[in-house]
Fold these 3 entries.
Entry 1:
Amino acid sequence: MDLHELVAALPEGAVLTDPDLLIGYRQDWARDPGAGTPAAVVRATCTADVAATLRWAHAHRVPVVPRGAGSGLSGGATAVDGGIVLSTERMRAITVDPITRTAVAQPGLLNAEVKRAVAEHGLWYPPDPSSFEMCSIGGNAATNAGGLCCVKYGVTTDYVLGMEVVLADGTPVRLGGPRLKDSAGLSLTKLFVGSEGTLGVITELTLRLLPAQPVQSTVVASFASLTAATEAILGITGTLRPSMLEFMDSIAINAVEDEMRMGLDRAAAALLVARSDAPGEFAAREAQIMVEACEKAGATEVFHTEDAEEGEAFTAARRFAIPAVERLGPLLLEDVGVPLPRLGDLVTGIAAIAERNDVTVSVIAHAGDGNTHPLIVHDPADADNTARAHRAFGEIMDLAITLGGTITGEHGVGRLKKDWLPDQLGPDVMALTRRIKDALDPHGILNPGAIL
Amino acid sequence: MDLHELVAALPEGAVLTDPDLLIGYRQDWARDPGAGTPAAVVRATCTADVAATLRWAHAHRVPVVPRGAGSGLSGGATAVDGGIVLSTERMRAITVDPITRTAVAQPGLLNAEVKRAVAEHGLWYPPDPSSFEMCSIGGNAATNAGGLCCVKYGVTTDYVLGMEVVLADGTPVRLGGPRLKDSAGLSLTKLFVGSEGTLGVITELTLRLLPAQPVQSTVVASFASLTAATEAILGITGTLRPSMLEFMDSIAINAVEDEMRMGLDRAAAALLVARSDAPGEFAAREAQIMVEACEKAGATEVFHTEDAEEGEAFTAARRFAIPAVERLGPLLLEDVGVPLPRLGDLVTGIAAIAERNDVTVSVIAHAGDGNTHPLIVHDPADADNTARAHRAFGEIMDLAITLGGTITGEHGVGRLKKDWLPDQLGPDVMALTRRIKDALDPHGILNPGAIL
């Protein structure tokens, strides 16, 4: 491939072709063994670089895989053989406007960096994927990322008021802006959020912010059965809106306890960590209501703290569950969600799938919104085990669809889950998706193989 | 036009062709004098009726204007000569699920009816257009309607989790569902919200609900100047998130006082009505902070009440401002919004436009989110006055665009504002909009003339 024209259109050093450097851009955290080798990586420094890259790629029909921090779990940034990986990691500016309570951020900034920048103004950007220290805000927008606070505060799309996005042919457009209300024309901003780089490349985001989150009360409860735990979850969400409501099963509890020695109940079948950020003493009041819901559901142990640091420690324990379980072996990380009343059916169904396929599956969940992360432990050196793990991976998605749920709550479809998408959406919605894709990317250069 | 095939495909009585009955479906509240006369009105009873109508219209290339309650203010439901008006007024079912905190509503239900149905379960559907007693939930979704609570609680799109929508060719599709998190495929649900019937006809909505709103504290403040009032607005929104923050100018104050005799300060240049729904005594605490912000900005009079009924009376007064000002003469109702720091420039600019064009313009506003409703009084019997009123109408939109704002915050573009849309969005975004429209409605039968 003749890259001279591309190199000439971009700042010095923006185009990487050294095979050693390309390796680091082949995979995201889905670690797809079938990842391709790109012809080049473009590390854009500004919107003009993104536009120049897409103009060139559009003219020459070269596939472009947009990439944020590469922390995606569905293979949305898996490189394509002979294509360009277009990285936004160097686009890292942010400005905060406390009066409109908005921030304008470039896509390469990490989620945690956005949170810190706005916190300096007493403000808060809520969405908080567990990977918030290492995932980019551009990737968050591309996947409509979620997190722990979503049960009360919603997901990324709820905080994106506007964006600059470069279309497939290299045309940059501005959509929306720092206005909470705007009914002028189609809701294009919202269409690009969650489009996983298949419709355009986001080069700037206008984010809605909230006042800094108040101190939270924390409730930790252990249960002897999954039934009791799911009953407590419904008891809590039926009464109030917790600011967090997380679930870990027995395997996750023990894996975390192995590493962190916090005194978690190793005999428990399930652990819930719930929080309230209601103002002042209302947080303690809400915590008390959650304590009672857990006790009513038959919790074996319930602990309640107003101490922010102690509460953070339990939240950190929950966030640490994925790496902790990973010590048992490489993970296939699921992301299925169901309407809340079906959560119990999902969790028990997953246990049956694990048993049937003779694989270890640990379930952790953003329980308050029905979004679970079954962690399928597998051994890549064992072909049979790996095959069974992948079978379980698919069966869990099938189960979620049967229960009226989704194959992905917050990670995106990427390449890993695209074979299941038609089962969830049906042929008519797939056709509708294809029509929009073809209208916006007629040559199919943008992230080919993702979603569709 | 041969309607036999259409009549045969629908239940008895669903197709109206009596000219006397058609008259009521020619206009919405924009009262467009150039409204067409439809060939027929279809009053659908179910999704199948909508699908049959669109299949027929698609085959015969007949324009279809979808219509909810007909309370739109931008002419989005203005009938087209020889077309079909497709009314959803008879589709009025709702089911509420307190566990997932969602409701599934048909489009013909009024916003107030949705609010009442969910309130029976202790739940709350926030979006509250001033017309909530007479606008339909389907129309709300089609225009991404707003209201008074949006300053804290967001707009319609923030509450639409899923929908059934019938595409231009008559294919019904289901998008999203009762899941707070769902990253499976493109964000199609959000694309259809605010599309004003140009991409499909919504036949069912899955709505996110909140726990019932707590009792509110209310602050009413009068100001001798617009500058002082806008300073108070920024003082309030810079400190906390009011559940409501409304503005009326002198003309509106006096028009309301003429009708309601509440003791409003007739000498004031501006009146703010602000509320807090923070839990328990925090509402009073937030109200106190708002009182101090108003005093600091130089309010001439500040009143504060914890009495819910009294607070509702002031909210009702603000809601009544439009009909009250209408007693001065027929209104051209504007809906421009700006980023909050430009609100003062917008309000003073509107006064200059009114003076220059020698017309009366009263400004009321959802001040907390920068969304204003300039009310242009005109006399249809006076051609010169009417021309000046329309000139002012356009100049106000031009001004909003210049200030980085929007020509419509919550009413939609419809037919009334479409000539200004390219000025706000620019040619590239218009072209993008056109590509999506053409992909989803290749024969252009859906609400032709609206938005585009």
Entry 2:
Amino acid sequence: MTLSLSAEKYQCQPWPGLIEAYREYLPVSTTTPIVTLLEGNTPLIPSFTLAERIGRQVSVYIKYDGLNPTGSFKDRGMTMAISKAKEEGAKAVICASTGNTSAAAAAYARRGGMRPFVVIPDGYVALGKLAQALLYGAEVIAIRGNFDQALGVVRQMADNYPITLVNSLNPYRLEGQKTGAFEVVDVLGNAPDWLCIPMGNAGNITAYWMGFCQYFQAGKCDRLPKMMGFQAAGAAPLVNGQPVTKPETIATAIRIGNPASWGKAVAAKDASQGSFHAVTDAEILNAYQILASEEGIFCEPASASSVAGLLKMKDEIPTGATVVCILTGHGLKDPEMAMKHGNSQFQKGVEMKVEVVAKAMGF
Amino acid sequence: MTLSLSAEKYQCQPWPGLIEAYREYLPVSTTTPIVTLLEGNTPLIPSFTLAERIGRQVSVYIKYDGLNPTGSFKDRGMTMAISKAKEEGAKAVICASTGNTSAAAAAYARRGGMRPFVVIPDGYVALGKLAQALLYGAEVIAIRGNFDQALGVVRQMADNYPITLVNSLNPYRLEGQKTGAFEVVDVLGNAPDWLCIPMGNAGNITAYWMGFCQYFQAGKCDRLPKMMGFQAAGAAPLVNGQPVTKPETIATAIRIGNPASWGKAVAAKDASQGSFHAVTDAEILNAYQILASEEGIFCEPASASSVAGLLKMKDEIPTGATVVCILTGHGLKDPEMAMKHGNSQFQKGVEMKVEVVAKAMGF
């Protein structure tokens, strides 16, 4: 595989965050107060082991979006949602998320001088899952009710008080997320042939498609990728064509039974001649381990579904094609998963002699 | 505070990793095989709340090096150490670290097709601390002996087998780490007035000073910063002028009693007219919480010592000065610390009525 990332003269550029970088493509004005942690500009890492597994001169790149400030791609949408909330005079923001969204919402809201509220059902969520959001200063309200009722409360609060909803219904989230596509094109010089992406609420595949289309119209790329969306087999409503009542998968970040962006995701797939596929938890874990122990890239299990999908579909990739896989979250977000699924050697009680240690190491 | 990061035309640059970016300043040749995860190019985030606390037109920037691929600044040194090990024909690398170094060593070694060995004393280390390294494919050998004896074994293995030592004795580590200084100058357009940095083994302050001096000699900046090094009060040999037998601090990444780069760190301080100071665990925790809940930046406790030090020394900063604080690791590296020290509200059992929730929120 040939690297297209070489030979020129580089230096560390003063990256101003994704809103400043892509201002002309985003719904902001010169008076919008920009709340940024300099998110975006994440590495597009050439993958050698995946390219080798596929063969036929296919190039594979990993968009490592877990290297955003709070550790997930949610920062892309949140810099937009929080900046617009501040512009509109909100004093607080609110969501019903328990994972990456709540962490991103808390970090950006506090940076912007607003209060971040997280509403969850009582007894539903382990404290560990919320630790990051709490440290960022999220104020958590656990209500006596289920998750749907928590969502209902969140909407009513946003309707009746100077509080902005920043869950996936907030339209600015997708505007921010589409910049991931811009960055891929800026670095590769064109759109890839395939874009492999995990689907939960299906907002990210929708946003990437928006981004590619907008860049295409602006003349920044002269082709569009096939949008290849992957879901966990136990939470695959978009693959099966119907909602899943009790979604189950180890990939918690995409454990969603009735995606918010269902129609838009299907439209992206159809317009791009892409396709949707399910990957099993075993396939996700296999990809998770390959990424860590062969590429040196540690991601959330949900992120690994894009690579699991790529490996599943590898015989359908055209010879010489360029493929980009999106990794949405850093592996450090889910330390328990790493503890359970590391499969390397741990030898205990080894005698402290060089020849014994050498033998234990296979020398 | 005025942002110097604005107004120009940006796009996402194809960042090739720090060795390619700074090749002319590093001991690599055209035949050195570069093992990279596109580390470096980390954000230099303007800090508003710290600048406000200091006043007097002082500008403060946070170099968020926790956004390197494995979550810490160790990646800067490791891309160099592993690339050189590969060039020299090593089949394996070895270290006795249990924290960020072992994770970085494992990720880069596996990406470079080498085996990463980690030698630790039996029963000394919790599995959780090593989970990231194990998932990356580190092979751990726990020996019947103490930590010094583990270090002895590591050195003997490196002397007698085709195994490269990648702990802090490896000289290429500092070469890679000095690029942090290059990036600061590239983004600011000059060196800052103060550089605030945590000190454990004191390799990073040594490396930053090397970098600033080299860039100064190359005409890339026309001044040099005062090097302000900070240690935890319970592990402050450089401040007290003598080794600490039993170093104690919550900032585990700088819990070191006898720093490897002692002499070089003192030389950097003296040459730059800087100074060393101790900060208490309470001051470190306070900075850790301010960074998260006011700036939206989540770091390891050890990282927060640079900000704790800045706040401690704030009255000595010249009016109008530019200060850069180095945050060496991402907060997600230490989730237990976040769980213990989040101090925001968590209200349980709230009745599911809008007016009740609104009251709970203070509306």
Entry 3:
Amino acid sequence: MKRNGNIDIFALHPTQILVLGFAILILIGALLLNLPIASQNGQSIGFINALFTATSAVCVTGLVVVDTLTYWTTFGQVVIILLIQIGGLGFMTMGTLFALLLGKKITLRERLVMQEALNQFSFSGVVRLAKYILIMTFTIEGIGAILLSIKFIPIYGLSRGIWYSIFHSISAFCNAGFDLIGNFRSLTPFVDDVLINMVIMSLIILGGIGFVVILDVMQKKNFNKLSLHSKLAITMTLILISVGFFVILILEFYNPDTMGQLSLKGKFLSALFHSVTPRTAGFNTLPTDKLTMASIFFTIVLMFIGGSSAGTAGGVKITTTGVVIATIVSVIKGKDDTETFGRRIPRDIINRSLAIIGLALGLVILVTMILSITEKDCSFIGIFFEAVSAFGTVGLSLGVTSTLSKLGKIIIAITMFFGRVGPLTVLLALAQRKKENKGILRYPEEKVIVG
Amino acid sequence: MKRNGNIDIFALHPTQILVLGFAILILIGALLLNLPIASQNGQSIGFINALFTATSAVCVTGLVVVDTLTYWTTFGQVVIILLIQIGGLGFMTMGTLFALLLGKKITLRERLVMQEALNQFSFSGVVRLAKYILIMTFTIEGIGAILLSIKFIPIYGLSRGIWYSIFHSISAFCNAGFDLIGNFRSLTPFVDDVLINMVIMSLIILGGIGFVVILDVMQKKNFNKLSLHSKLAITMTLILISVGFFVILILEFYNPDTMGQLSLKGKFLSALFHSVTPRTAGFNTLPTDKLTMASIFFTIVLMFIGGSSAGTAGGVKITTTGVVIATIVSVIKGKDDTETFGRRIPRDIINRSLAIIGLALGLVILVTMILSITEKDCSFIGIFFEAVSAFGTVGLSLGVTSTLSKLGKIIIAITMFFGRVGPLTVLLALAQRKKENKGILRYPEEKVIVG
Ligand SMILES: [K+]
Ligand SMILES: [K+]
């Protein structure tokens, strides 16, 4: 690690760089939000709350202990949206990088070591990738902001309308779920607004499906030519959104506290929105705590599944879930191999999927148990929901976040961080991996990114 | 399926025989329990309740809509214990058979077809196996009953004491959890009784670990010489009991509604008992609904994991969980193969483990969602607990069972049946498996039974 007395960051494993980098970003964010000028009441919010908010922003979660509009000053809000943008871009870039390197069977460290040996310190490839992602992100967020401004400028005036459009476009594309609507209302005032719903949902889905898939679709323009990863991610997204839409619509159709009073248009829009948002945007247009028990539990399941790998979404990921479903189908069919879309999913991906789901379940169970000790006044479902929301970096809550004890806040903050950098990534960062090349003859394979 | 106009049961897949056989047994049990002479009030209990009780007995679950002592006549109680004994023996025999056949890479059907071809209809091997299991079961249950009678005869008198000893010995070894203590109290009156606790726990563990492991231990007498399956089952049992003991002890130590008032001996005994019973016996010595929220959630996790394959326990099984843990460790270590105890776990076992856990999670989620619609007055944790208890054929309850609606009872009965015959077995029974032999060169392997 050390060379010439200095820590050599190039000698760190890339996952260690990721974990370290985001920890530092969170710390800087916490210090800024801790300043009195960040709070409207002119007093420091206190370090735990500042740390919680910074973690929630960098990890693009959206769980908030104070209302973003009414508590923070514009300075505070700018810090938050910058943390979201840097966090979101960072995870997307690092995720894409890892995914591409995984495809090429070469680790970043190996590449760096290789470059070092060749005295070629040019990061041209990495820089070009980051540039692509930056351009794509700003393009999509720009279009989103322009579309949102059609509604927001008439409502909030020119300057505040533009600010709202930019803030919510970034927050939606980064799957962050922070909002400036006020009083923890999220997007409930816009429950039956077609434009706002459609723009926000499109941003959520594009951000959540990740750069690799978007690039693949832009290049190939034909579903059959896409990579297995893209096929699986797109199919799972469509299935989960459709299933979620029908389940939420049926369960809430007559619920007087949610959809009951809405027009048919409002019912359809809000059902679609509440199918999209748990994976893992965190906005809501219906009051989450008023949903039926079945919808709440279903939302927990969607939050746990999350979005696509190498994007801004959290959870165990839809591709991981896709691998599990493909494996179940293969086992039932009596096949030894996990097959889907005419391809065989390699064994290490299946092992990895199993490990990710096992670790995620373990983490959620542990956090729920600890919270049920520290937060004695909360209902079990509230705590369970909060734990999964934090792990999946979703940001939906049944109202537990603002009542959390100090210890509870620290636990949720740690859960968001683990949920974001991935339980597996954290562990891989700790353990030095030794790659062994074995000379086994195998059939041709294609990789899927999971986790 | 048909030959000479008759259904040829030998042409059925063994899992189809298993499902059909137990469905018939449940139906016979329900008809008997539906008779007025089964109820102490001289009136038929009604078919839904009779079916629920018969399913609970045959599937060795122990969830009860009426108290076994105070509601049923001796006739009814005898029917129940016979259903438990036949169900328990049946599952143990069938499970062992499948496990042995799996090890020999030949299905029962193939063997039967082979025998048919050779005009050898002698089931000598199968009969000998069933005989072994029968002898072992009656020996263990006999010893259990004699030990229990030391306490039960002084308390309940000679004839009732003997009846209680036999009933509870069978119920414990079969992991059924039915009791004759009265008023839904289960074994709470014996919370600090060393003999009762130790005997019941030993019976639960022996029944839950399965015949294959017991036979293996009796033959080899040396841990290192045991099969991988036995090593994994024994290790996981010890780990889960130890972890469970400490977790329950810490969480309940000062809980005034459970352990708070007990002596240190009572605390240790009840912590141990409540570590053993969720996997998946269903007796309780502490009031389940008075446990802390953290203990209740922890109990749900233990119920989901369950006992060993090819025994009387339910759940996804400890060996399945062991495979998942071994896979997680292997992935973290960067190994492509899942290794444990110096052996490589073959790929199809890992796929199967993934499928079992995926299907089990799916079933529990679905049942919880449906129950939260049909049982509006119950708390979420009560419903979730009930769904997992039914799936794991545990029989613990937070009090939901006796308040279930008719639809709720049917759903729980179906869940018990699915949980018992195994989601995978049911699906395998429906789908005809086609075995393909592929000529891939592989390293030597050893099988583990999962599910
Ligand atoms: K989020
Ligand atoms: K049981």
